[in-house]
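INFO  loader      accepted 1 record
INFO  loader      residues=241
INFO  predictor   begin
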Amino acid sequence: MPADAPTILATSGGIREGLRTPWEFSPLADYAIELPGGTRRAPRICLLATALGDNPAVLHGLHQAAQTRGLSASHLALFPMPNVDDITAHLLAHDVVWVFGGSVAGLLAMWRLHGVDTAMRHAWQAGVVLTGISAGSICWHVGGTTDSFGPDLRPVTDGLALVPFSNGVHYDSESQRRPLFQRLIADGTLPSGYATDDGAGVLYRGTDFVEALSECAGAAAYFVEAEDGTAVEHCLDARRL
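INFO  predictor   done
INFO  writer      dumping tokens
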């Protein structure tokens, strides 16, 4: 069943190394799966690895993670051609869309080429919960920082903009992320936005921020805004899952 409002959970977490499988979903993903509400059937999740070129091994590992969690899983692939006839209908048939990390610039280009951007907006408006990690977090926003172009991070400014904020991921674990995110907001390249340490996420209902969440000790989230040409960072209270 759909969530009762358009819902996005943008994270720098939600997946970890599995005990018997390459990956398993962690509490942030579990929380996203619970957001649509109770139902007697297994929750339906659509997995995307566009940002990694639809790597078959990655998709297989994600399906294993979903199976371990007791989910009814499918995936949307775009290489070498879309694997479904109607992308919008496919997304609308699910409770949750979960997007893996990689090249957010490549993801956005491929999504626009095949109309996935429009399909995602329809799914979001219909109450399908949109979530993911890294590139699968930035994509829902106006933009953020990315290594899509090389090891020196650069801005990406053409996100889907379902929410009117920028997004910083891996804020505590990759040294270039925090200073660049703040600089881009200070100079107006990016709008004010939310950043997440590894293991943290931010929840939106409609276009409004609701709360910060954490799946591990010490993982924090932040709101960064520009004041008189300077970035001001506010640490948010993150509810531990």
